């Protein structure tokens, strides 16, 4: 189901030619899927009926179904729960900024990376998403709101570099001039730090943004909150980021979730400043989201300010992530967890 939506125009041409139709139909089909965001063959009125029937029979497609939608009254953020064709549930978020709409999408159903502060990993990874299911989240939100999406962050559930090929195909589809044509510079891939995959991504020399979930300044601390740190040391992760910068000349964003008493002391800030000083980077401080399954608490406002101030002394550009949708279960993965509990899973 839905596999045809992962295809490039060249791949669609093969299908079309095998049906004895003209090659230009492939571009038309691609435009229906990715520009007009129409996934129902019956609506594709510039394609011959015969072709539509064959496609319907051999390449069934099913849109993502909105099963729940929560709108923030504070800032217009909307959280969506989508049901996939095999009834799995994923979560996406629309955030409205002055500069345009940003959508945070999932790359997997669940996640097996085990980060201690994250609700998405509580039941592990169920499966990877298809590129079509990644673009589908954006199309469904765009159609539901009737608003254009101009920024994408792959920061919902899942580790997007685990299946690098899927993420690369997603970028190709969403960036395509015959589709939504969202610029690579408006796409951010967030990773917990898979070193070989960061290097492989760097080799692609794309202009997308890399966000690295750092969250600690020593291997010991990082290992305590992120199991992946047992596989790759901080030194290796930072070396991979340097490599990414060297290949792409793009600034790397380091995500740092502040957890009270865990990683928010002045000495942590100094160590972080020392590690990142002079690097083409930016730190995004995130007051950690409290989730039912874990006991972490968000840092106090005074600790956050102190942390930011120290980083600035080191000349490291730092921002504090604005908490959006605070009134609607904002934390990543929480809405889905709540829905699954309700469904008895
Ligand atoms: S933070 Fe990201 S990588 Fe870590 S468990 Fe959650 S979804 Fe997976």
Automatic annotation (TrEMBL):
The active site is at residues 91, 332. Its EC number is 2.1.1.192. It is found in: Cytoplasm. The keyword Iron applies. Residues 97-327 form the Radical SAM core domain. It is an enzyme of class 2 (transferase). S-adenosyl-L-methionine binds at residues 158-159, 190, 213-215, 289. Keywords: 4Fe-4S, Cytoplasm, Disulfide bond, Iron, Iron-sulfur, Metal-binding, Methyltransferase, rRNA processing, S-adenosyl-L-methionine, Transferase, tRNA processing. One of its GO terms (biological process) is rRNA base methylation. It catalyses: adenosine(37) in tRNA + 2 reduced [2Fe-2S]-[ferredoxin] + 2 S-adenosyl-L-methionine = 2-methyladenosine(37) in tRNA + 5'-deoxyadenosine + L-methionine + 2 oxidized [2Fe-2S]-[ferredoxin] + S-adenosyl-L-homocysteine; adenosine(2503) in 23S rRNA + 2 reduced [2Fe-2S]-[ferredoxin] + 2 S-adenosyl-L-methionine = 2-methyladenosine(2503) in 23S rRNA + 5'-deoxyadenosine + L-methionine + 2 oxidized [2Fe-2S]-[ferredoxin] + S-adenosyl-L-homocysteine. Its cofactor is [4Fe-4S] cluster. GO terms for cellular component: cytoplasm. It holds the Pfam family RlmN_N. Its main location: cytoplasm. CDD domains: Radical_SAM. Binds 1 [4Fe-4S] cluster. The cluster is coordinated with 3 cysteines and an exchangeable S-adenosyl-L-methionine. [4Fe-4S] cluster binds at residues 111, 115, 118. GO terms for molecular function: 4 iron, 4 sulfur cluster binding; metal ion binding; rRNA (adenine(2503)-C2-)-methyltransferase activity; rRNA binding; tRNA (adenine(37)-C2)-methyltransferase activity; tRNA binding. Specifically methylates position 2 of adenine 2503 in 23S rRNA and position 2 of adenine 37 in tRNAs. Belongs to the radical SAM superfamily. RlmN family. Reaction proceeds by a ping-pong mechanism involving intermediate methylation of a conserved cysteine residue. This is Probable dual-specificity RNA methyltransferase RlmN.
């Amino acid at each position: 189901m839905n596999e045809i939506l992962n295809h490039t125009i060249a791949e669609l041409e093969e299908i079309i030619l095998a049906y004895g139709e003209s090659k230009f139909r492939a571009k038309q089909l691609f435009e229906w899927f990715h520009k007009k965001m129409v996934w129902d063959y019956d609506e594709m009125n510039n394609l011959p009926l015969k072709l539509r029937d064959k496609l319907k029979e051999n390449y069934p497609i099913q849109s993502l179904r909105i099963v729940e939608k929560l709108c923030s009254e504070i800032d217009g953020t909307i959280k969506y729960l989508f049901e996939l064709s095999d009834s799995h549930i994923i979560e996406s978020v629309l955030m409205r900024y002055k500069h345009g709409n940003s959508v945070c999408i999932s790359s997997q159903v669940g996640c097996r990376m085990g980060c201690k502060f994250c609700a998405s990993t509580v039941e592990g990874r169920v499966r990877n998403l298809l590129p079509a299911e990644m673009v589908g989240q954006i199309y469904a939100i765009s159609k539901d709101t009737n608003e254009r999406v101009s920024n994408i962050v792959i920061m919902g559930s899942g580790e997007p570099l685990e299946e690098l090929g899927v993420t690369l195909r997603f970028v190709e589809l969403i960036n395509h001039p015959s589709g939504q044509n969202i610029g690579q510079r408006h796409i951010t891939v967030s990773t917990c730090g898979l070193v070989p995959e960061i290097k492989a991504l760097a080799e692609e020399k794309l202009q997308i943004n890399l966000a690295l979930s750092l969250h600690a300044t020593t291997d010991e601390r990082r290992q305590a909150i992120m199991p992946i740190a047992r596989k790759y040391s901080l030194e290796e992760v930072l070396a991979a980021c340097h490599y990414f910068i060297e290949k792409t000349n793009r600034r790397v964003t380091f995500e740092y979730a502040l957890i009270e008493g865990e990683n928010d002391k002045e000495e942590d800030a100094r160590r972080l400043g020392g590690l990142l000083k002079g690097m083409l980077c930016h730190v995004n401080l995130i007051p950690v989201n409290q989730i039912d399954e874990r006991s972490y608490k968000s840092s106090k406002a005074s600790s956050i300010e102190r942390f930011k101030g120290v980083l600035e002394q080191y000349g490291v550009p730092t921002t504090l992530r604005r908490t959006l949708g605070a009134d609607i279960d904002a934390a990543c993965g929480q809405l889905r967890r709540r829905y699954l509990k309700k469904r008895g899973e």
